[in-house]
Amino acid sequence: MPIRVTVWNEFLHEQNDEKVRAVYPLGIHQAIAEFLGRDAELAVRTATLGQPDNGLPQAVLDQTDVLLWWGHMGHQLVDDMVVERVYQAVLDGMGLIVLHSGHASKIFEKICGMPSHLLSWQERGEGERVFVINPAHPIAAGLPQYFEIPKTEVYSEYFSIPAPDSLIFLSWYPSGEVFRSGFTYERGRGKIFYFSPGHETYPIYKQPEVQTVLRNAVRWTARTPNAPRIVYRANTPVLRPHADMGENR
Amino acid sequence: MPIRVTVWNEFLHEQNDEKVRAVYPLGIHQAIAEFLGRDAELAVRTATLGQPDNGLPQAVLDQTDVLLWWGHMGHQLVDDMVVERVYQAVLDGMGLIVLHSGHASKIFEKICGMPSHLLSWQERGEGERVFVINPAHPIAAGLPQYFEIPKTEVYSEYFSIPAPDSLIFLSWYPSGEVFRSGFTYERGRGKIFYFSPGHETYPIYKQPEVQTVLRNAVRWTARTPNAPRIVYRANTPVLRPHADMGENR
Amino acid sequence: MPIRVTVWNEFLHEQNDEKVRAVYPLGIHQAIAEFLGRDAELAVRTATLGQPDNGLPQAVLDQTDVLLWWGHMGHQLVDDMVVERVYQAVLDGMGLIVLHSGHASKIFEKICGMPSHLLSWQERGEGERVFVINPAHPIAAGLPQYFEIPKTEVYSEYFSIPAPDSLIFLSWYPSGEVFRSGFTYERGRGKIFYFSPGHETYPIYKQPEVQTVLRNAVRWTARTPNAPRIVYRANTPVLRPHADMGENR
Amino acid sequence: MPIRVTVWNEFLHEQNDEKVRAVYPLGIHQAIAEFLGRDAELAVRTATLGQPDNGLPQAVLDQTDVLLWWGHMGHQLVDDMVVERVYQAVLDGMGLIVLHSGHASKIFEKICGMPSHLLSWQERGEGERVFVINPAHPIAAGLPQYFEIPKTEVYSEYFSIPAPDSLIFLSWYPSGEVFRSGFTYERGRGKIFYFSPGHETYPIYKQPEVQTVLRNAVRWTARTPNAPRIVYRANTPVLRPHADMGENR
Fold first, then answer.
1. Which one of C151, C167, C245 makes the best mutation probe of the A interface by having the most chain A beta carbons within 10 Å?
2. What is the ipTM of this complex?
3. Which of B112, B163, B174 sits opposite A186 (nearest CB)?
4. Do the Cβ atoms of C140 and A228 come closer than 8 Å?
5. CB pair distance less than 8 Å for A120 and B234
6. Which domain holds residue B53?
7. Could you tell me which of B88, B49, B46, B39 has the C-alpha nearest to residue B67?
8. Which of B8, B108, C39, C240 is the most buried (most CB within 10 A)?
9. Does residue D203 lie within any of the structural domains?
10. How close A146 gets to chain B, by Cα (Å)?
């Protein structure tokens, strides 16, 4: 059974800015959906801010194993009820991959419990080197020990996030910055991956190494079938008496 | 210079429930303030929900190095603006110690980025064994490798929290439960400690081992003087050119 | 392509002790290999201490994606060169699953960098409850939120190990103990899982939940195809000059 | 009572190499001991490889709250019994600060359980930027959000270490590298800090920010008075019967 992937995009830049449209004429979501869709084990659909329910009604989330999130200028336009719905879906096992400027999205901030929009940034059009610092992690499979992105937006520490559960990538920029550029969290039954490389005018999602990362991340974050179901009990015998387990039974 | 401690209590049970008043006649906050206050290195005050600004105007937070938080039935009565103020204070370096049922407080949920109110619980009046699993941690100083609480409220896994940055205590209950009962997070410049032992009718805060934990925790979470100040830069040269650092200078 | 699994057993108890032979007549390794072997995606072989090279010549490790390790009374009989070979194989990507008393094996101690043989234990023949505390982890898939083992050997904290990279299971025992009973480490390109339930005379490896854990763990620890290859450089240009990456290229 | 600090140095370069002697005429250990010694709360002594017991007989370790370790060309000359003695002392609560090339020392490798000598390096004489990524950590107190070292030796990822318990510093180098340059581990009752800045011919230990880091690290790693004492029990009642804790007592 394929992994069901939904690529979400606010889809604003592409409609308003010719420079963005030149790189991603059908939208960033379509570009990502296109290369993920070539993977026979993935069933990919897209959703956008302008659709009813911001493209994410409960029925879509219920049929999504991994949600990729691209947002930038429209973070505040996402409905709080949609954010809450995505949050609950993640806690219940839906994977979440947060892309680039999505660090400032409502959903990522809520999950971080920190003001994750805070970092330093600059558009210099210079390059970035992405180092793998956890070569055991499946998200790094198929990569060299570091790879380069020719033109990127600089994101620099300090980045206001909780210490990752697993830190996989560190980025270097020629202008003097470092950044924790790829890392994971586990929250409830859900797995989250953040990846900073990506931009609306630099064609970073067309780069093979970046596509490898996202293909790996889809598999890693995908909803685990049969994850333990949690039942919380309020002032009722939490568990059956341990006497059942003793030597005398 | 002493560590400035503010003990916050919703202070509701003690006014409404004779059983609680019998144990903590002046309120849980006063009982905690009393034993902390005997420590010459601490300057202790209290604050309660019913005071203006829920007892926590900005001026109080500005002069607080560690805030202890007791809440139970009144979580929803805490003003959202006060929660936001405490949140910003923690990110800026104020320590936070969350006690027992405070796991379900607005402030702890916001910091966790998870529904930390979710756990199983039961009031059986049985005992609890608290094991130290990180004997290097200063919060465990002065304790034996485990200690016992004669009568407690059972809190049981699964507990809906992010994996702690440091897990210090695990609790065992005779009725068949385990719990991550003491752990830390670091968020921004702030340090947070959660400790589950404590209750409004069992006199747990009068137990020497529990007092030791809280005295240690006050020191560990206390605001670090001169913590690095973070300045975020938006599309301005993030750092001075690295050419300054090369061989030719 | 199937995951290539090698189940290693010192295979001493079964030859010397009738009580053990009664439970595992062909050896613990054969019992484990039997249920893993029913999984069509796994190709399972066994190896034992008494074979040449302790059953683990380089050629076997080179064709092993996951090694399961059972040892108890014969830890000191394992050749140091074999331990070194397994260690290098793990760092290079071979998965390692350490079972029960394997916490005191040379290989696990070397990986822990701590005296992981240190814990408290007791053979009481009572039960154990194993709680899932990270329901997002694939090793917990297919399990309830906790399960019970009818008769077990008690392992108790403090357990002298490094804080796990991911703590998945906590165990409770009626006689008053808790234990970190299942957790992972990532080391180099290798993934390690330790699981304490298991014993030579209690038929724990015949229990469905335990078999589920081990089947999941084999998949989770299995060698990642195409993990990044690391090349270390000594005083040669570590990377090509960053000038290649600047605005002028 | 002051923190008792022992600064250990192999003290070889300074005797054999004029360039090193020019920077540290009395040895690196004396330079470090000098600035630490100006701190009234520290009682500082030194020890070197050439002394009996490599300068570290049991009596010295017993009176040491923090050991700083500088080694480079003489790692293999350290007696294995001394390494074992230091290892046991760390597990028992003595702090350990491993400096620069000490990443390849026997003691650090043993604690890491990984081949921590593996990293890429280059002596280019260029600069280094050290970013604070955990501003809550006391070891970062008194620092700006990043600081610069004018001339340094490049250490580059991938660095073959276990994921730190707390990652505090990340370094950037103009030639295109990043490095986890400061981090902690907790092992048993002991606390360990590794810090890569430092070198035998660049006067890095004379730089105020580096001295601040080491002064902070001495306090953070220092032996905790009254850390829990662990007693391991073998097949004796691990704990007194839980019946003691039930409702009927």
1. C245
2. 0.94
3. B163
4. yes
5. yes
6. 3-226
7. B46
8. B8
9. yes
10. 21
